[in-house]
Prior knowledge:
This protein is α+β, with helices and mostly antiparallel strands. The chain is built from two helices and eight strands; from the N terminus they run βββββαβαββ. The strands form two sheets. It has a six-stranded mixed β-sheet with strand order 1-2-3-8-6-7. The protein has a two-stranded antiparallel ribbon with strand order 4-5.
Amino acid sequence: MSTTFISSDQAPDPVGPYPHARVFGNLLFLSGVGPRKKGSKEIPGVTLDKNKNIIAYNIEEQCHSVFQNVKFVLEASGSRWENLIDITVYLTDMKKDFPIFNKIYAEYFPDKATQPCRTTVEVNALPTPIAIELKCIAVVGTV
């Protein structure tokens, strides 16, 4: 079976040597998606000190931004939001951010018939000064 590499013109560039996503059969595997904006190293809702350490962040802004970036990659792949089947969520502060994230997540997935499976884990750090990253699997085409 062949594989196709996907690159989105709207999502931020990956921070390492990997594609935005890969299609294998009818499955789409997204690389970790963060909240950065295309063409900028700036992260929505994040305040950094002179050493690039996080002073403060707004998890709501980051959630909305990361969901938008996932949508950009899905669209570039010929898939759509309703085709997501599994999401792994990485948060850097579960206790503080999970209730806010969960509330926003519910707004993006109101239909129980199309809600993907989900796992949420707390991590000590992410590759850039972000508080959330998503790892997604979707189906390409209609489900």
